[in-house]
Amino acid sequence: MIEIQAHHKRPHFELDVALQLSHKVTALFGPSGAGKSTLLGIIAGIIKPDNGRIMINGECLFDSKQHINKPIFERRIGLVFQDGRLFPHLTVEHNLDYALRFIPPDRQQFNLNQIASLLEISHLLKQRPHQLSGGEKQRVALGRALLSSPRLLMLDEPLASLDDRLKNQILPFLKLVANEVNIPMIYISHSRDEIMQITSNIVNIENGKIKT
Amino acid sequence: MLDFFRITSSEITILLLSLKVALFCIALILVPATAVAWLLARKTFWGKSLLDSLVHLPLVLPPVVPGFLLLLLFGNQGFIGKFLHESFGFSIAFTWMGAVVASAVMAFPLMVRSARLAITQVDKGLEIAAQSLGAHPLRVFFTITLPLAMPGMITGLILAFSRSMGEFGATITFVGNIENETRTLPLAIYSYTQTPDGDVAALRLAILSMALALGALMISDKLERKAQRQIGHSHD
Fold it and tell me: Is the ipTM of this complex over 0.90?
């Protein structure tokens, strides 16, 4: 169960949301500039809202009244960005295992080989990110986030920079993760087609507000 | 003719002293310059532009001014020098350690500039991604930011090293021109030009300086290319 209540005002934009997400997979849908990424930033701890409260499974990540604001690295929220953000100086293998050293073994949900074969990237382990195709990069980014054993996985337009052919190559993997992996997921996109393939739980966001 | 190419023992002394001063200089400034560069590149705080200006001051001042200020501070009658001398019987003015400090002050801005530029160019998004994977910001700095900034850091180190090898004004003001102690390459060249019949000796050291500078630039270029390859930028 994820509870988000946030108010964030900027000169040309105001975000004001209150949400309770109880489904395993939720899509956040809305046009660009609607505030999807701002909301993601607030949940992840990248953006500090003016006030609000964020709870995941009863644990408080942010509460402006109680002055709680857990830093990004303590929130355990896996992020997959549109641009992948793989570490260019590390091999695929070391991108994937980056998080493992920060997690006590008893909390590790997966091992590297499991994830690599699930996402069909085992043959790429020795490569550097600049040698990968766009679709391969996103699979590695997804694997890297999963290997951090997050309590929540957030994907911010993970397919937006891929062409249709590549999108259709990645979508099955996203579906696989959404269905097979036991981690709650928030999927952000401005494409309804894409979202429909992942989940039917859709939250609409427009002009910084939730549309019901 | 062949004798011209034989390096004399006094030249070796000068060369080793210069190398010692320059190596200690970059060892002294590496950590503080990187820390200041990171602050300037990544943080906003009160007094930032003042810090920025202060760091750059030695670049725009006549070198004799920092040298004179160091003398006022670290000389045996100086504010810090007196304390060091009375408490520990220790003095850096007119010693090779003073030459290290003088050249460190002059080289500091060059290291900060290169490191700052290099750190600024590292994508913040990568740092955020690393933090989201559970890495503490300090860990992120050492595993992501620093390796990706390495080519610029190397440039900064070579620039600082060369600046230290070439430092003249601040050094001669603060630590004088003492043979075997503070007479580095440029000071020795200067001394020879002030000596009757010293032209040949000065020319030999000048050639040695050029060879060293050229070597430093070539090594820096090689290291930079290597570092670029390591972070996945190809050079072809």
Answer: yes
